[in-house]
Amino acid sequence: MKRIIVYSLLIACSLLFIAPLFWAVTTALKSQTELYLFPPKWIPSVWKFSNFADAWTIQPFNLFLKNTVIVTLMSTLGQLISCTLVAYGFARFQFKGRDLLFLVVLATMMIPWEVTMIPQYMEFNYLGWINTLKPLIVPSWFGSAYFIFLLRQFILTLPRELDEAATIDGANKFAILVRIIVPLMGPSLILVGVFQMMSCWNDYLGPLIFLNDQSKYTLTLGLSQFKGMFGVDMQSIMAITCLISIPPLVVFFFAQRYIVGGIASTGIKG
């Protein structure tokens, strides 16, 4: 009986999360006349799958997709490389002021991005990077405090005997990182990569601030083009929303076991 109650509650809660997604899909498939019916009609009379193709071609979404993929891949690669190097330095190197510097890095997580938004815009404007993809990519190559923390915690769980054995065999610090540490960091690196990919793919405020030309727009900015001064193209918004939600859902579906393993392996230590 207890199990039936628990499963019933879980099903009821899951329906609360599924309902908005189901509504978005059915709205994307509705005809214009069924959009604003009251009471709302959940299931369309005619399933108009052509709405997806029409919405994709109204705006240059192929170009928006290309820009989004470039930003996502380059930013994710930058975070993986930079955060791994910094985390390795904090976990394995002994130097004066290391712990204080690490606390300073962690303290940057308390600063909201809205606080640094204007200084960053002024800096990128001085460099001539406004209306380019560089402001969305380059900062990722300088690391993220949260990802550095996660990777450092994982490296601390690895025995130092591995480093010492590799040193006896003639490996330098960089070789130890590349040949021993990084292969063991698989789940944690996948965790960082998925989190960064999700963040870049769904980012709206960054592209809105730094991009002016439509040819540089990302998918999220392209989605906002359906909201005009005199109306909202609800069908197209829902259709594109469903389409651009597919890649993150697929990535999360295949990487979820690595995500759980990565979180479990970055327990607090040291």
UniProtKB/TrEMBL annotation:
Lineage top rank: taxon: Bacteria
Cellular localization per UniProt: Cell membrane
Cross-referenced InterPro entries: MetI-like, MetI-like_sf
TM spans (from-to): 69-88, 100-118, 138-155, 176-198, 236-255
Keyword tags: Cell membrane, Membrane, Transmembrane, Transmembrane helix, Transport
Main localization category: membrane
Membrane topology: Multi-pass membrane protein
Domain ABC transmembrane type-1: 65-255
Family label: Belongs to the binding-protein-dependent transport system permease family.
Full protein name: Carbohydrate ABC transporter permease
Organism for this UniProt entry: Paenibacillus alba
